[in-house]
Amino acid sequence: MTTRDRILARIRRATSGAPAADPVPRDYLRVHGTRTPAETADLLAAHLTEYRARVHRTDEDGIAPLLARLLSASRTVLVPPALPPHWLAASAATRVHDRSRSTPHELDRVDSVVTGCALAIAETGTIVLDGGPDQGRRRITLIPDHHVCVVRVPGQVVDSVPQALERLDPARPLTWISGPSATSDIELDRVEGVHGPRTLDVVLLGAQ
Description:
Blueprint: H1 3-14, H2 37-50, E1 54-58, H3 60-70, E2 76-79, E3 94-97, H4 104-108, E4 112-115, E5 119-121, E6 126-129, E7 146-152, E8 157-158, H5 161-167, E9 175-177, E10 182-184, E11 190-192, E12 199-205
Parallel strand pairs: 1-12, 2-3, 2-4, 4-7, 5-8, 7-12
Antiparallel strand pairs: 5-6, 6-9, 10-11
């Protein structure tokens, strides 16, 4: 039994005789406005740009040369197990595979990581990863300094957070990304790359 199992068992014992909670009202707006799929993609791109992510648009024919350009300064690139092989067909960077035995120091020596995503939220400019086969373990997107994330448009783009929550599995390891990792001190001096990648490139695949 893991520590998590023990904690959850204690919670279940402590709440076993408690009365059922009142239902949570869901009368809030699910979406703020009506948009076409193209307008939703444009809103996502605008918010990502505000967060200082670099946004690119391409189709299946253009993704290989685009990724090759984005990785042109990278000697090594981390690759999740189910990343489509043709995406990196034009890149000269050496592939490093997602392995459970890789140490943080080994991952820190990798220049870039390329992943897919679970979905993206237009109204907040947020990308969500859930550890799927084309995304790999959470840590491979937190340690390398450069993350290239591919979002399939329109299939993986939703308008709002309520729509996103309906499509996500809460039992999976969810990572919510709104721009490159950054923090500020008391004087609001921004420092990027503190808790994750310093540079975030988002590729909207299928949007031209």
